[in-house]
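Internal tracking record. Fields below are filled automatically when a chain is submitted to the structure queue. Please do not edit lines marked as system-generated. If the sequence contains nonstandard residues, flag them in the REMARKS field before resubmitting.
Queue: standard
Priority: normal
Entity type: single polypeptide chain
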Amino acid sequence: MSKTTSGTNMSQEDYEKLKKSADNNALSESEAIILINKEFGFEASRIKIMIAVEIDVSEPNSRYLEIEKKPRKPLYEATDWNYIRFNIITRSGEWTYEMVNGNLHFVNI
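SYSTEM-GENERATED OUTPUT FOLLOWS
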């Protein structure tokens, strides 16, 4: 896997590779919610699927932070080759997570 960038746990390069191989395996919002519920046990009514990410695309050692918004639909090729970005809605706000290759990752924004 390539180096990740700030704002996501999967590099844009890896996402593009997954998108190319999983082109016919894009998940609908309801399919992604069911998968997140099944895999990680989050209450389905509290899951909000995100279809875009803001990532840091700044040059190394740059003095300025450059953020770019990239579309990222939920993709599923296999149990160890997938991506879903989602929020969990709580009383105190929303927590952002990603399912990357079957693993749950907190997104530190």
